[in-house]
Amino acid sequence: MFSPHIMTRRVAPRSTVRFTRAILLVLFAVFVGVSNGAFATDGALTLVEAQQRAVERSRLLAAKEYAAQSSREMSVSARQLPDPVLKLGIDNLPINGQERFSLTRDFMTMQRIGVMQELTRTDKRRLRAERFEREAEKSVAEKAATMAEVERETALAWLDRYYTEAMSAVIAEQIEQAKLEIQASESAYRTGRGTQADIFISRSALTALEDKASDINRRVGNAKIALARWIGDAAQLPLDAKPAADAVRLDEATLDTQLVHHPELAVLAKQEDIAITEAQLAKANKKADWSVEVAVQKRGPGYSDMLSIGLSVPLQWDQKNRQDRELSSKLAQVEQARAEREDALRAHVAEVRGMLNEWHTNRERQIRYEQQLIPLASSRTTASVAAYRGGKSTLADVLAARRSEIDVRLQALQLGQETDRLWAQLNFLFPQNDISRH
Known about the structure:
By secondary structure, the protein is α+β, with helices and mostly antiparallel strands. The protein has a domain at about 55-60 and about 140-290 and about 320-435: Outer membrane efflux proteins (OEP). The chain has nine helices and four strands; from the N terminus they run αααββααααββαα. Strands 1-2-3-4 form a four-stranded antiparallel β-sheet, with no helix packed on it.
């Protein structure tokens, strides 16, 4: 490290001093470059980066993946035959007389060991496995719906913070103007061109602006908390510029067809598939499964051992009140799932069309604010200030014009926030990695 306080006995020549200075300048430039490179990694947070962080951080997506894995494992298990049943027993054991509790004296006493196997029909095992496969597909569809929700909610939280910070900047700018107006009113009062009431009016205006700034700062803090719910500590990073929000990834002419593939409707479609599989399984249950049993009976030393073979067949003697009722119930559940999916599609199409209509209207209003209302309010403020300086207007007129301009600018930002929230809700109906398919 170089130190300016180190004193040497000999004075260095000028060439050496210049060379040392050059080295210091090079080292300083390298340090600045390294520092800039280090700070570049902590750049502004874009909307896309926030969504990526939210997806990577979400535990709901991991939960849906585990649910799908669980169903796939159960699908493999459901294809197998039931476990065989080991049977142990003692037959014909005497309980009184001379042979009481003897296992070998009576020729009818036998020690039995056997195995029973239920022969589940192949089509039943296949349908049981398919049901769990449909469950896995439903979990995958739920994961897509969850991903779309995470991206959508993150975008809404990002936009809320962006606009509340923009509102805070507008108020901060007006606070600086209010401070200048206080100075101007005090100067005018000292020179006899103004009144003491003007000073009180300007100070009251500053206090009102500071109170509004406190309220907006509260909203900024809440917006950061809402964003942190999705992306954690990265919510404290400064935000990058707002992305273009003048188009959505939806074709209004084919909206009904596009929304058929919406993740939430895909979940309902998979629920319908599950109901269909359960109905097929209920139909297959009308054919009973048989069980086979083989047993060996060991008797006393003087008697022959025995072998028994048995077949068990359930008697479905009341199919119309059991198996047929079960099948009718499952078929009704299929119709229920289908009706719910169709109604959800109609409701979703109506909701999206309403949001599109509101979005188009808000965009027209935004243009009106940008091209007419804001310039007019700004011109009114400029004219009031000029008239006040020329002695043709009062300070109250200036403050009224400035309050009107603040209100118009805040209303424009509020409208922009509402419009962009609609854009986010429409633009992120589908997960970003799945949007090209629809």
